[in-house]
């Protein structure tokens, strides 16, 4: 498969990318605090915005289901909320450690924020108040946060080599997927397996049946209902798999991007490599 086009705008490392729910626009951020607004039909930035702050590095982005608001997280103790139409800040979530990942619930009522200091902070979007926080959710930085389409569960993936499934209503852990290296990490022992088993990215299928993850250089897929491994594409990329995504509701493909600058397609139903 070949990409139909590419978008060039940022001059520095891109830290996050999110799509609007109508799939007409996408938003990107970089380490210099620039947010790019993209029109996917014209394949060019229709606007851009520079964040004026002492700490410019944007760590993560999220968008509300109605595509009216964009959230940006920083290596600072706050998340900024932007109105997309006016491109003006309208509020923020604050008083927690650096946001390393975040997600907005499908009903737009909750925001789940994963932090660099191992805990999860859950906020009410309308009131801008913290509902609760889960201390020691992981043993290390939380790289990924995803809310399932069912609106009652969410996932977190961490540098501690684990993936956890949580109850979004009771704020309780439901299941854990421990990767190779987790036990040694929990004991504080240094080993290369930590890096090789770090959960760097997560994705959930459109029907909430499968979890895909980049674990070190591999791509792994699990059944959500049983939390058992469905298939694994070993050494999918050189060094690390940095991003994964399910293609569509009908297509049984997963796309992965790696540190090796390659984009690959995998058929998780046939458990086979498609192309790159």
Describe the protein in words:
This protein is mainly β and 276 residues long. It has two helices and 24 strands. It has helices at residues 182-186, 193-196, and strands at 14-19, 25-30, 34-39, 44-50, 58-63, 69-74, 78-83, 88-94, 99-104, 110-115, 120-124, 129-134, 142-147, 153-158, 162-167, 172-178, 199-204, 210-215, 218-223, 229-233, 241-246, 253-258, 263-267, 272-275. The strands form six sheets. Strands 1-2-3-4 form a four-stranded antiparallel beta sheet, with no helix packed on it. A hairpin with a 3-residue loop joins β14 and β15.
Q: What structural keywords apply?
A:
single chain; disordered N terminus; 276 residues; mainly beta; 3% helix; four-stranded antiparallel beta sheet
Q: How are the secondary structure elements laid out?
A:
Blueprint: E1 14-19, E2 25-30, E3 34-39, E4 44-50, E5 58-63, E6 69-74, E7 78-83, E8 88-94, E9 99-104, E10 110-115, E11 120-124, E12 129-134, E13 142-147, E14 153-158, E15 162-167, E16 172-178, H1 182-186, H2 193-196, E17 199-204, E18 210-215, E19 218-223, E20 229-233, E21 241-246, E22 253-258, E23 263-267, E24 272-275
Antiparallel strand pairs: 1-2, 2-3, 3-4, 5-6, 6-7, 7-8, 9-10, 10-11, 11-12, 13-14, 14-15, 15-16, 17-18, 18-19, 19-20, 21-22, 22-23, 23-24
Which term fits the overall shape? globular
The chain-level mean pLDDT equals: 86
Whole-angstrom Rg:
18 Å
Separation of the first and last Cα atoms? 6 Å
Number of helical segments?
2
Give the amount of beta strand, in percent. Answer: over 45%
User: Biggest β-sheet: count, sense, barrel?
Assistant: 4 strands, antiparallel
E-strand count: 24
């Amino acid at each position: 498969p070949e990409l139909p086009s590419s978008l060039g705008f940022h001059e520095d490392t891109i830290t996050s990318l999110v799509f609007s729910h109508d799939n007409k626009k996408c938003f990107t951020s970089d380490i210099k605090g620039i947010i790019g607004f993209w029109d996917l039909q014209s394949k060019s930035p229709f606007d851009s915005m520079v964040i004026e702050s002492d700490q410019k590095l944007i760590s993560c982005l999220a968008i509300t289901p109605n595509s009216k608001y964009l959230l940006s997280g920083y290596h600072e103790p706050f998340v900024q909320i932007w109105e997309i139409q006016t491109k003006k800040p309208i509020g923020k979530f604050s008083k927690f450690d650096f946001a390393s990942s975040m997600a907005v619930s499908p009903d737009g009522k909750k925001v789940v924020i994963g932090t660099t200091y191992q805990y999860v902070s859950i906020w009410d979007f309308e009131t801008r108040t913290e509902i609760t926080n889960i201390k020691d959710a992981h043993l290390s930085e939380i790289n990924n946060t995803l809310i399932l389409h069912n609106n009652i569960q969410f996932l977190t993936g961490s540098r501690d080599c684990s993936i956890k499934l949580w109850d979004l209503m009771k704020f309780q852990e439901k299941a854990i997927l421990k990767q190779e290296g987790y036990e040694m990490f929990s004991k504080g022992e240094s080993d290369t397996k930590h890096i090789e088993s770090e959960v760097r990215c997560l994705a959930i299928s459109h029907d909430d049946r499968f979890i895909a993850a980049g674990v070190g250089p591999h791509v792994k897929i699990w059944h959500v209902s049983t939390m058992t491994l469905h298939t694994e594409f070993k050494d999918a990329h050189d060094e690390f798999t940095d991003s994964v995504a399910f293609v569509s509701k009908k297509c049984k493909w997963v796309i992965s991007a790696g540190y090796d600058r390659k984009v690959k397609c995998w058929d998780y139903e046939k458990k086979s490599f498609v192309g790159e």
